[in-house]
Amino acid sequence: MKMTEKHLQTGDALPPYNGRLRLFAMRFCPYAGRCVLVLNAKNIPYDVVYINLTKKPEWIFNFSPKGAVPALEYQKGKALFDSNVINTYLDEEYPEYPLQATDPLRRAQDQLVVENFNTVITAYFTAAYNPQGLQPSHPEIFHKGLELLQKELETRGTEFLHGEEAGMVDYTLWPFLERFEALPLGNAEFALDKSNYETLLTYMESMKQLPAVTSNYLPPDIYAKFTDSFVTGSGGLRASEALSTKPL
């Protein structure tokens, strides 16, 4: 459930708190997307308040010291921030459908998968939001990281990294994998060719079928349109415009 259809900004009032978990997010933020996926996967009732990150409402700093998203209001006026912190809390506070591996070694291995993936994320952000800073090494870093992820999928031999059902590690990586599909629209060096990524692309198709993912999925052209608005210096694209082909 979403409390606001627009991204609230400076001067806008904080919507009243109704007692449910409340996630402060930005529709195109992959880190906030991680929390949305976990909340959806665990079927936890919650509300979303979207934040304009270029014109932040004054009250967001009461929930997140730096005004960053995501932030989760778990009691009135009390919040957690950082996607990994929030998702670990959600998985332990609402244990009915656990998303983390029960085996300590596998949990550690999952954390290493996420850690290794950070190099891919860095290359993605450069390609998407700072193309003028793109170096010849960035596509190589991007593909080496994805090859490592594909090898991990092949080694585990399950439909998802977590197993035959998706888990925390999958929902942590997915918001970025979803956005990677938009990169070839602006730079073919970042294309995920099927001849090189058959296992990874099969995994991505499996992720797209999950209810937690389908309810929040956006097609590549929407992400490309949004990021291009920043690259071209057009002042940022309003979420309502970017989402004109898919309702919130």
What's the arrangement of secondary structure elements?
Elements (H helix, E strand, L loop, with lengths): L20 E5 L4 H12 L4 E5 L20 E5 L2 E4 L1 H11 L10 H26 L7 H20 L11 H13 L17 H11 L2 H4 L5 H12 L7 H4 L6
Parallel strand pairs: 1-2
Antiparallel strand pairs: 1-3, 3-4
Helix pairs in contact: 1-2, 1-5, 3-4, 3-5
The strand count comes to 4
Low-confidence parts = 235-248
* CATH architecture descriptor name of the largest domain: Up-down Bundle
Sketch the topology as an H/E string, one letter per element.
EHEEEHHHHHHHH
For the record, the count of structural domains works out to 2
CATH topology of the largest domain: Glutathione S-transferase Yfyf (Class Pi), Chain A, domain 2
Mean pLDDT: 91
Judging from the principal axes of the Cα atoms, what is the shape?
A: globular
CATH class descriptor name of the largest domain: Mainly Alpha
Beta-strand content estimate = 5-15%
Strands of the biggest beta sheet: in what spatial order?
Answer: 2-1-3-4
Largest sheet: 4 strands, mixed
Helix proportion range: 40-55%
Structural class: alpha+beta
Distance between the termini: 10 Å
The whole-angstrom Rg is 18 Å
* Total helical elements: 9
What would your notes on this structure say?
InterPro entries: Glutathione-S-Trfase_C-like (IPR010987), Glutathione-S-Trfase_C_sf (IPR036282), Glutathione_S-Trfase (IPR040079), Glutathione_S-Trfase_N (IPR004045), GST_omega (IPR005442), GST_Omega/HSP26 (IPR050983), Thioredoxin-like_sf (IPR036249). Residues 19-98 form the GST N-terminal domain. Pfam families: GST_C_2, GST_N_3. Keywords: Oxidoreductase. Belongs to the GST superfamily. Omega family. There is one protein chain. This protein is globular. It has helices at 30-41, 83-93, 104-129, 137-156, 168-180, 198-208, 211-214, 220-231, 239-242, and strands spanning 21-25, 46-50, 71-75, 78-81. The chain contains 9 helices and 4 strands. Strand 1, helix 1 and strand 2 (46-50) form a beta-alpha-beta unit. The protein folds into 2 domains: 21-93, 3-Layer(aba) Sandwich (Glutaredoxin); 104-217, Glutathione S-transferase Yfyf (Class Pi), Chain A, domain 2. Strands 2-1-3-4 form a 4-stranded mixed sheet. It is of the alpha+beta class. Helix content is 46%, strand content 8%. The N and C termini lie close together (10 Å).
